[in-house]
Amino acid sequence: MPIYNKLVRDRIPEIIEKSGSTYSSRVLDETEYKEELRKKLSEEVEEYLNAMSNDEAIEELADVMELIHALAVTHGSTIEEVEKVRVEKAQKRGGFEEKIYLVEVHDES
Question: According to its UniProt record, what is one Pfam family this protein matches (predicted)?
């Protein structure tokens, strides 16, 4: 019997039941939830970094996005607000489209 002790997507218990298995779970409090979302984000980013194909990378990025949506809510915001902040930062500081790799800065003073 595998022991997971991790946050899972909302429909996983239903999927487990449909497969004929049983499970035990509990609902996290807000502090635990935020902590587990952060752990899950780290896990999904690691899976993205280890992706071996574009399709696999897209799957993992979708998981990362789902977690960003949930984390925005835990911080009293929405994904729309996160996107607004992203756009504002891109307007002020740019994005990453130009592939600039900064090597060093020489202080002229």
Answer: PRA-PH
